[in-house]
Amino acid sequence: MRDQTLKFHFLLFLLITISLFHSANSNYLNLRRGASISVEGNTLITSPDNSFNCGFYALPGSNAYWFAIWFTNSKDKTVVWTANRDRPVSSRGSRVSIRGDGTMVLTDVDGSVKWQTNTTSTDVVAAELLNTGNLVLKNLQGEILWQSFDVPTDTLLPSQRLTKNKRLTSLLRKGSFESGYFNLYFGADNVLTLISDSPETSSIYWPDPYYDIYTNGRTNYNSSRIAFLDDMGMFHSSDKFQASASDKGFGTKRRLTIDHDGNLRIYSLNNSTGLWMIAWQALSQPCQVHGVCGRNAICVYAPIPKCICTPGFEVINPSDWSAGCKPAFNETLSNSQVKFVEVSQTDYFGYDIDFQPDFSMEACRELCLGDSRCRAFTYRTWGEGHCYVKSSLFSGFMSPDFPGSTYVKIPRSLQVSKPSIFQGSSNTCEHREAEILVGSVSKYDSTRRMVRWVYIYSFCGALGAIELIFITLGWWFLFRKHGVPASVEAGYRMISSHFTRFNYGELKKATNNFREELGRGGSGIVYKGVLSDDRMVAVKRLGDVFQGQDHFWAEMRTIGKINHINLVRMWGYCSERRHRLLVYEYVSNMSLDKHIFNSNFLGWKQRFAVALGTAKGLAYLHHECLEWVIHCDVKPENILLDSGLQPKIADFGLAKLFQRDGPGSEISKIRGTQGYMAPEWALNLPITAKVDVYGYGVVVLEMIKGIKLSNWAVGDTDDHEIPLKTFSRTVKEKVQCGCGNSSWVDSIVDPRLEGKFSRKQAETLIKVGLSCVEENKSKRPTMASVVQILMECEE
Ligand SMILES: *[C@@H]1O[C@H](CO)[C@@H](O)[C@H](O)[C@H]1NC(C)=O
Ligand SMILES: *[C@@H]1O[C@H](CO)[C@@H](O)[C@H](O)[C@H]1NC(C)=O
Ligand SMILES: *[C@@H]1O[C@H](CO)[C@@H](O)[C@H](O)[C@H]1NC(C)=O
Ligand SMILES: *[C@@H]1O[C@H](CO)[C@@H](O)[C@H](O)[C@H]1NC(C)=O
Ligand SMILES: *[C@@H]1O[C@H](CO)[C@@H](O)[C@H](O)[C@H]1NC(C)=O
């Protein structure tokens, strides 16, 4: 008898052990009503194809857990949904169960409810995780009573819909587990919007707040408010916004996530490595995200984005820039005690208590002094001066392309040093700098890599949705939560109306029946004109453009949005019957070739400025506008000089217009100018932005030498070697045997300068020029790195 009891007990023990062991190792496919899972049990709900897991997710570096869904096959087990994001539970005793009343409940160790679904249907049979990553509660009939897709956190999975009243919210910062301030949602105007919504400020930063809805390529009439990512990697929104993953196609696992840096990205999973690649992002420039650096701070590219404090302010928490900076002085100031410190090339978004167009700098200063709320004023010089009086300093950014400065009110007694990021010596503010956002250098690099990869597949062209440009025209307008001041709104309307469709009669009149010819090129003849509002323009009459009206209009809109100080601005176009005309700003000082190869040549200082400005313009085309424009015809004739001898690149964006039978087919015959054309044109290789780098290299070498090096055609036989090849070979030899002695520079630089040039700059420029004309395109630098190198030796 006793034996039997013992046996029985032993069997029971064995059974229990086996079942425990079993349950600890096997994955539940689903969770039935009345059952529960716990942290200790280590049980998971898995999707049938095992691509997603759902269960307790340990927060690294803590004893806390989320009830979450994550990708099984990504290296870092990327979380796509969290039930209790801001209320993690303890590692012991926490459990998720489906109660008899049909609610799924997450309880902490003390039994307190940390999260629950509010399904109170006794029909609920089980919770299942679908192959899409959706956790659902189903009834006997298989109907879905609740789904995690309806309560997203920061990620949208393919086939999941973002709808009215839902939002994606970022994490607070890299490595944190709380909700942050950046949100994606449909605004009351039906437009899909990114907003920075911190306790201190609330500011929309996407779509570009400097433009109106239509210029941003959106609409507000469709009130269905639905956005989703499809299985091919296309993102669609009911406001007409569309984006496409650069690796568009079926079979790849993707997600759309709002990251802790405020950017919205589509990621694609690489099966073999388990790593995510960025396949699209909403903002090409990290500093476009409002509030990324917090109050009184400035976002700068150095060249990795960083936060620094406004002079006179100190960082509050160096490991969390969203807290911003605080004044290093007593805030109550009387006018007799203050001075203004200039923060050049810097603007702060919004908080304008006053805006005055056509104002003098002195009057602007007086305006600020006269208002005790004024903390600073921004003065923009683009044509006339524009004055913005600011009550707070939020969303500051510094960019070499911003045509103006902000003057910050600080006590007269306070000594501050200016931030000098762009002078290449950032020692003074090094201790205040912290790396923000795209998180780490490597991630930033991966974006860049992606960009390069993309070039190959999208010749000279557009990819994804229309992304707007960072620096706009001479009118900053502000967008506040509570509306836009009327004066500013007027300026804003002018921006959007500045890109115009002209009719043929207007342009005929403006150019006095096409009388004064400014120049002619492969794509057409350019005439001088004056518009009815007295603006001087250059009107280009295109030759045969075999494109329909719609396509032409789409191209024009894209080009019309490109705006950079070193690019010739397009004011509008005309497309009527067979007439195709483009209307550009008039640039007064002719093209670069007239200033190099003639007796009327530029001095060194101007040549260097032209080299740097041209590089900036190209870098902007290649890296900063998401439309990734390749110029395809960089040569001195296409670099115009304005009245201050600053370069402006003309004719960008036209390569696509002349494309006939699809990408790459006949372009080489139409675009490109012999002598400036990279070898890959002749070899029929994929055309990338590196063709512009090559053209730029030839231009730079010509500017240094002062003679044309591009005289003969590419591809001639060796006995008739082109001057460029000979030149670069001899220079390379000199560089090599120079052995640290830079006297070789003298023998190369234009003798007409009679030695009046900076050796350091000349040496740098020669080396840059040579590397740009490397035969192997992968050895050529990017335009962004050329800008960086040249800025380091700017004087
Ligand atoms: C049910 O869920 C919705 C959305 O999550 C929430 O707003 C609502 O308060 C919940 N109701 C109950 C009774 O918990
Ligand atoms: C509104 O958007 C939805 C979703 O994109 C679409 O199905 C619908 O046709 C649109 N309605 C109109 C009137 O365009
Ligand atoms: C990735 O792996 C999954 C399953 O192993 C497969 O179905 C899919 O086709 C793969 N995708 C690619 C792009 O190789
Ligand atoms: C995945 O990563 C490997 C290694 O980095 C790379 O060779 C491969 O091309 C990647 N696959 C895709 C589809 O990008
Ligand atoms: C700041 O200045 C005001 C007026 O001069 C003074 O009353 C106040 O005590 C000062 N505060 C500090 C913290 O120095």
Automatic annotation (TrEMBL):
<dbReference type="InterPro" id="IPR003609">
    <property type="entry name" value="Pan_app"/>
</dbReference>
<dbReference type="InterPro" id="IPR001480">
    <property type="entry name" value="Bulb-type_lectin_dom"/>
</dbReference>
<keyword id="KW-0547">Nucleotide-binding</keyword>
<feature type="transmembrane region" description="Helical">
    <location>
        <begin position="453"/>
        <end position="478"/>
    </location>
</feature>
<dbReference type="Pfam" id="PF00954">
    <property type="entry name" value="S_locus_glycop"/>
</dbReference>
<keyword id="KW-0808">Transferase</keyword>
<feature type="binding site">
    <location>
        <position position="540"/>
    </location>
    <ligand>
        <name>ATP</name>
    </ligand>
</feature>
<keyword id="KW-0723">Serine/threonine-protein kinase</keyword>
<comment type="similarity">
    <text>Belongs to the protein kinase superfamily. Ser/Thr protein kinase family.</text>
</comment>
<dbReference type="GO" id="GO:0005524">
    <property type="term" value="F:ATP binding"/>
</dbReference>
<keyword id="KW-0418">Kinase</keyword>
<keyword id="KW-0067">ATP-binding</keyword>
<keyword id="KW-0245">EGF-like domain</keyword>
<dbReference type="InterPro" id="IPR000719">
    <property type="entry name" value="Prot_kinase_dom"/>
</dbReference>
<protein>
    <recommendedName>
        <fullName>Receptor-like serine/threonine-protein kinase</fullName>
        <ecNumber>2.7.11.1</ecNumber>
    </recommendedName>
</protein>
<dbReference type="GO" id="GO:0048544">
    <property type="term" value="P:recognition of pollen"/>
</dbReference>
<keyword id="KW-1133">Transmembrane helix</keyword>
<dbReference type="InterPro" id="IPR011009">
    <property type="entry name" value="Kinase-like_dom_sf"/>
</dbReference>
<keyword id="KW-0325">Glycoprotein</keyword>
<dbReference type="GO" id="GO:0016020">
    <property type="term" value="C:membrane"/>
</dbReference>
<dbReference type="GO" id="GO:0004674">
    <property type="term" value="F:protein serine/threonine kinase activity"/>
</dbReference>
<dbReference type="InterPro" id="IPR024171">
    <property type="entry name" value="SRK-like_kinase"/>
</dbReference>
<keyword id="KW-0812">Transmembrane</keyword>
<feature type="signal peptide">
    <location>
        <begin position="1"/>
        <end position="26"/>
    </location>
</feature>
<keyword id="KW-1015">Disulfide bond</keyword>
<dbReference type="InterPro" id="IPR000742">
    <property type="entry name" value="EGF"/>
</dbReference>
<dbReference type="InterPro" id="IPR000858">
    <property type="entry name" value="S_locus_glycoprot_dom"/>
</dbReference>
<keyword id="KW-0472">Membrane</keyword>
<keyword id="KW-0675">Receptor</keyword>
<keyword id="KW-0732">Signal</keyword>
<feature type="domain" description="EGF-like">
    <location>
        <begin position="283"/>
        <end position="319"/>
    </location>
</feature>
<feature type="domain" description="Bulb-type lectin">
    <location>
        <begin position="30"/>
        <end position="150"/>
    </location>
</feature>
<feature type="domain" description="Protein kinase">
    <location>
        <begin position="512"/>
        <end position="795"/>
    </location>
</feature>
<dbReference type="InterPro" id="IPR017441">
    <property type="entry name" value="Protein_kinase_ATP_BS"/>
</dbReference>
<dbReference type="Pfam" id="PF00069">
    <property type="entry name" value="Pkinase"/>
</dbReference>
<dbReference type="InterPro" id="IPR008271">
    <property type="entry name" value="Ser/Thr_kinase_AS"/>
</dbReference>
<feature type="domain" description="Apple">
    <location>
        <begin position="325"/>
        <end position="414"/>
    </location>
</feature>
<dbReference type="Pfam" id="PF01453">
    <property type="entry name" value="B_lectin"/>
</dbReference>
<dbReference type="InterPro" id="IPR036426">
    <property type="entry name" value="Bulb-type_lectin_dom_sf"/>
</dbReference>
<dbReference type="Pfam" id="PF14295">
    <property type="entry name" value="PAN_4"/>
</dbReference>
